[in-house]
Amino acid sequence: MEIRNRSPLTAKNANLPAGRQGRRKVHKVHPAPSTKHHNFNFSLRILLIFNAVCYYKTGNFAKKHLLMNIALIGYGRMGHEIESIALKRGHLIKLIVDQYNEDDLNKSNLVNIDAAFEFSSPDAAFSNILKCLAEKVPVVSGTTGWLDKYNDVVKECNRNQTAFIHSSNFSIGVNLLFRLNSELAKLMKRYGNYEASIEEIHHVKKLDAPSGTAITLAEGIINQNPKYEKWCFENDNSDKCIPIRSVREGLVPGIHTITWDSEIDTINLKHEAKNRKGLALGAVVAAEFIYSRKGVFTMNDVMGF
Question: What's the pTM?
């Protein structure tokens, strides 16, 4: 896997000044480590992930982002959390649209909007996204259940020369988990005696199963490990399948665990959300990232991977 590091903490180390030729600076680019050194490469990837964490913890985003006029499309629990985080970071909420005022999502109300957050419902998401893109408004999409039309959104985004980002989970911690999950799946290609499985636990009000995050984790394993070709529910005994166990209990915000099990030991990767603030912060940071850019992005771009 190619590591594309865009984090300000590490990007400045990519090109080191080696001298001058007239007034023109000459930069020396250090070659990437040999792919033969698996342990060194894995350590380097972990270091890049650590640098991304430091970037968020030092508050660099709070210092560097431009203030935005925001539209909230969907005003449920996530909409309220995004509103709270956005206001704390100095942004302004100019438009709120939910099921009671859907007609307010129109050209005249989008004129001065810098970024729209689409966290509504699967039935409404695609239409809402297209309306925003048509007015060249960058969109942060967290709604799932419409992704069979994702390529249509990509075309519209590029045609209107604006920006779009979708993620099944905008949490910074979960996106670090996505990365670690992919790296571990790649390493496990050499150790066929381990079997992968995923468990996700959420509150009883979450009706869809498995979660979008669990599916993304499964896809990360499938993309890196030829032992698996699909995901399935836990009681499915299909070949080359990653079983996903879904549990609904209490008020759990979200727990995701990836397990690699063998006869001699077990390896676990786990993320446990304490509240929705991590999701909201990641979504606002994503909006700050795409606001001044054009194109279709992922959280890998935002995280600097």
Answer: 0.74
